[in-house]
Write a structure and sequence with these properties.
TIM Barrel; 33% helix; 8 helices; alpha/beta
């Protein structure tokens, strides 16, 4: 029997209520290529971890909480970006499905490519995923590069792929005053969302500063000093434009 892949784990939340349908056992993986200026988990960027576990170990732990999940709950894999560890997530979701566990993938889709071997792996992973929490950071490609360090062309292509293959999506957009909150960009984001066939929910996540202390601890400059969270009124305005709940 082949040795199981071990995933690089950042942390675990046993009773998550905001990371997919129902109550979720949330696994935060290490590793992310993007450097979003507002990221509140820069400690997940590095792929290295002292906590390495197999899919079986994680699912054995998760199933201790199964009675709380109800009909809609299950496991959510977040990050970082789980697609950085696609081989591990694929193994995790294969075993989860064998155990009858609902699966949710929280991703910004930066690693997505139609090149092999990634594309075939992603296609199999999509078939094993009940819901994708899909982050659209910024709709304009040039502004996306300035915000995250990367283009969004492959990210939007990933959303189209998921839509075309019938994978249920929740779209998420972080609202940052002065960066991602202009009406022009919000309407453009809404226009893109409207082209997708499998979007079940849209969420606006207000920017916050709760993770800024991590930058100081890690010795990483925080480039949004002085930026305040959006007001309730501006958040509601964005929700109305995006058709968010």
């Amino acid at each position: 029997m082949a040795e199981q892949i071990k995933g690089a784990i950042h942390s675990i939340e046993t009773f998550g209520c905001v990371d997919g349908p129902g109550v979720r056992f949330v696994i935060f993986l290490k590793g992310c290529h993007m450097r979003c200026r507002y990221c509140h988990n820069p400690d997940t960027w590095d792929l290295r971890s002292d906590d390495m576990r197999t899919a079986s170990e994680l699912l054995d732990f998760a199933e201790r909480y199964r009675e709380y999940w109800g009909e809609d709950g299950g496991i959510t894999v977040s990050g970082g970006d789980p697609l950085v560890q696609i081989d591990f997530v694929l193994e995790l979701f294969r075993e989860a499905k064998a155990r009858g566990i609902n699966t949710c993938l929280d991703t910004s889709a930066q690693p997505f490519t139609r090149e092999e071997p990634f594309f075939s792996k992603f296609g199999e992973l999509a078939k094993l995923t009940d819901t994708v929490l899909f982050d659209i950071k910024e709709i304009d490609d040039e502004k996306h590069k300035k915000l995250t360090g990367w283009s969004n062309k492959n990210i939007l292509d990933c959303a189209r792929y998921l839509s075309d293959h019938g994978v249920s999506m929740w779209i998420r957009h972080v609202l940052v005053p002065g960066l991602t909150d202009s009406d022009e960009e919000l309407y453009a984001t809404r226009a893109f969302i409207d082209t997708l066939k499998t979007v079940k929910k849209v969420e606006v996540l207000p920017y916050h500063t709760l993770g800024t202390f991590k930058y100081e601890k890690l010795g990483i400059p925080y480039t949004l000093k002085g930026v305040e969270p959006p007001t309730d009124a501006s958040t509601q305005h964005a929700k109305e434009i995006l058709g968010a709940s």
